[in-house]
Design brief:
There is one protein chain. The chain is 38% helix and 13% strand. By secondary structure, the chain is of the alpha/beta class. It has one domain: Glycoside hydrolase/deacetylase (TIM Barrel, Alpha-Beta Barrel). Strands 1, 2, 3, 4, 5, 6, 7, 8 and 11 form a nine-stranded mixed β-sheet that branches. It is globular. The N terminus and C terminus are likely disordered.
Length: 339
């Protein structure tokens, strides 16, 4: 047993240093080359996990005491966007307008100290039209989890942006996560995990399609919202899928088991008004998916923002909230709701 413990320790240590090296070299590697490398890396993984990805059947069980979704809805549908670059920032309003036209709202997560500055006017536009604004990492350079000390220093800066932007949610870059360290953030929820995704740099899934609570050392909790549908970048740029059938297939499975269908879509990679480039995919893939969701599940799904889901889970499961963490301003009502 001790031998396996040591093997696991060295595996995670080796992975840590390998990721540190990758993120140090990443700025010098062209984006198309990065996706080509990830494609080569993903091919054998897809074969190895062909029986459990994108659907891992052991993820379907509801957590103990799960109250069901509000107003008799059979599952939750949640749209989120991570904005990584200036190109993505410039596309946010067009993506929001596409969603509004089809009757959806979503969360846009911005990088506070990355290659762009998020205009206050854009955040105001999103808030006034019913969208959510969240914080996406600090610099999006892979250094957030370099050490506990540097994370704590960065957490102070992240908390300032959370307060300034009136945000209650956070997601790390590259889906890196340490749920114990994340308790340093003044958040209602974190969204840096996934149910099952072997293609991520840190591939340790949480193996559930439901929200769950993470305890802080002070006895309070924050809510963890794993993504449960494949990321757009994984499907269309890494695996080079020619359509959105895997999105629909996974959505149908999550819906059938009453879970939370949460997806990450990057405006950076979505070609909205031109032929898709080498590191882009047609916006029609996303639009067609939204139309499918609306047509098939319009009366069955709870179409919610991440903060809605987190607040609902916190209140219905009676989770204690840290005094420094903001509660969502959204009031969610459901059958038997208790504040």
């Amino acid at each position: 047993m001790l031998r396996f413990v040591f093997q696991g320790h060295y595996y995670h240590l080796g992975l840590h240093y390998l990721l540190v090296l990758y993120y140090a070299l990443k700025p010098a590697i062209p984006q198309t080359a990065r996706f080509a490398l990830r494609y080569c890396y993903a091919l054998p993984l897809r074969w190895i996990f062909r029986g459990s990805w994108p659907i891992r059947k052991t993820s379907q069980g509801a957590p103990k005491g799960w109250p069901g979704w509000p107003n008799g809805h059979s599952f939750a549908f949640v749209l989120t966007h991570d904005v990584e670059s200036r190109k993505g920032l410039d596309r946010c309003r067009a993506v929001a307008e596409l969603e509004m036209r089809l009757g959806f709202r979503s969360s846009f997560n911005f990088v506070p100290e990355g290659e762009y500055e998020t205009p206050a006017a854009l955040r105001l536009f999103l808030a006034e039209h019913g969208f959510e604004v969240g914080v996406h990492d600090l610099r999006h350079d892979g250094t957030l989890y370099r050490s506990a000390e540097t994370f704590e220093n960065d957490a102070r800066r992240i908390n300032r942006y959370l307060k300034e932007w009136n945000a209650v949610g956070f997601r790390s870059a590259f889906m890196r996560h340490n749920l114990r360290w994340l308790q340093k953030l003044n958040v209602l929820y974190d969204a840096s995990t996934f149910d099952h995704d072997p293609f991520e740099p840190q591939p340790d899934g949480v193996h559930t399609i439901f929200p769950f609570a993470v305890s802080r050392s002070d006895g309070s909790t924050y809510v963890e919202l794993p993504y449960t549908l494949p990321q757009d970048s994984t499907l269309f740029l890494v695996l080079r899928e020619a359509g959105n059938e895997l999105w629909k297939r996974k959505l149908d499975w999550v819906a059938a088991h009453g879970g939370m269908a949460l997806v990450i879509v990057h405006p950076d990679y979505m070609a909205l008004d031109a032929t898709a480039g080498s590191a882009e995919y047609p916006a029609e893939f996303y639009e067609d998916f939204l139309k499918y969701v609306r047509k098939r599940y319009g009366s069955k799904a709870w179409f919610a923002l991440p903060r809605d889901v987190a607040e609902y889970a916190r209140r219905r499961m009676r989770l204690p909230l840290s005094p420094t963490a903001p509660s969502s301003a959204v009031t969610v009502r459901g059958p038997g709701h208790q504040a």
